[in-house]
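thread: overnight batch results

M.L. [08:02]
morning all. the overnight job finished for the chain we discussed friday. pasting input first so we're all looking at the same thing
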Amino acid sequence: MARSSEVCRSNCPINFVLETFGDKWTLLIVRDLMFKGKRTYGEFLESDERISTNILADRLKRLEEHEIVEKTVAPDNRSKLIYSLTPKGKDLLPVMLEITAWSAKHDATTNTPNSFLDMFAAAKDKMMSAILSELE
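M.L. [08:03]
and the structure it wrote out:
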């Protein structure tokens, strides 16, 4: 069921985003799906931020409820779930790119590659198309 701001504290668009994502872990899972090619529960657990299993399970469930991610059974292992971004989740790409560029600008110790920043500045649309094609 698609969620709307009708179930939120207010109809404010910033509040809707905060109630959808809620905390740092949720956007880090989106980051891992979008930019790092992670698709399984175990791969998310390997991220540098070291999310706990109970938080990961909860955030994946929340992302599914908000139709940001979907899960399917792996064709080669019926006990393994594969997570992917839905079209709604892929719509977060411009936001995620802007967050990354903002962080690189204001964080002196960022690990954002210069190649990312150069392409972002010179050809953002081309960059978005390339990332979206990898998510297909």
